[in-house]
Amino acid sequence: MRARSCCYSALSKNNGKVGNAFKVVPHKCGTVSGEKVCPRCGMKYVGVERRRKGQRLYYYAVHRERSSGELKVKKCYLGAEEYAYVGQMHAKEGLALKGLLDRGRAVDYLLSLLGYVERAELDREQASALVERLEEVTELLRKRLGKYHTFVVPAGQRTQP
To answer: What would the 3-class secondary structure string for the chain be?
Structure first.
């Protein structure tokens, strides 16, 4: 049996074309117990469909299920490749909004906003609220890092029993 890529592409025949614009493309996806899970609905999916409309590219999770012997296809919108118009509205903050396929988007947003906070002129109340919240989050992250902290023993040295 042939090994499947990250996302199974049932549309690989005919160069992946369905109609004139649709294509299921492989990508790095999140899995739970070996199943790909849709970030929109939480159901497993078999691939990601890419649709081009003009100059824009949109992604959809492709779900397949059998019901009364029929194969049914459902698609969940995962977002655009880039959000040009919305991005213009958030340029001052340095935010580049991303679709659901980008699993690291929340951290990217936070890092961008932290850069904005460094440049922004905040009043005393805003600054105080941010300091308090950032201290809470910093403490939480340090605790989480402590759980994963490992000690590396230099080569040639032994650990004490």
So the answer is: CCCCCCCCCCCCHHHHCECCCEEEECCCCCEECCEEECCCCCCECCEEEEEEECCEEEEEEEEEEEECCEEEEEEEEEEECCCHHHHHHCCCCCCCCCCCCCCCHHHHHHHHHHHHHHHCCCCHHHHHHHHHHHHHHHHHHHHHHHHHCCCCCCCCCCCCC
153 inside domain: no
pLDDT digits (tens, 9 = 90+) for 80-130: 888 877 778 888 888 888 888 788 888 998 999 999 999 999 999 999 999
Question: Cα-Cα-Cα-Cα dihedral of 122, 124, 130, 131, to 10°?
Answer: 120
Model confidence pTM above 0.85: no
Instruction: Give the range of the structural domain holding residue 131, as residue numbers without chain letter.
Output: 105-147
For residue 76, being part of any structural domain is answered with yes
Domain count along the chain: 2
- The verdict on residue 117 lying in a domain is yes
| Residue 55 within any structural domain of the chain | yes
- Please tell me whether residues 75 and 129 are part of one structural domain: no
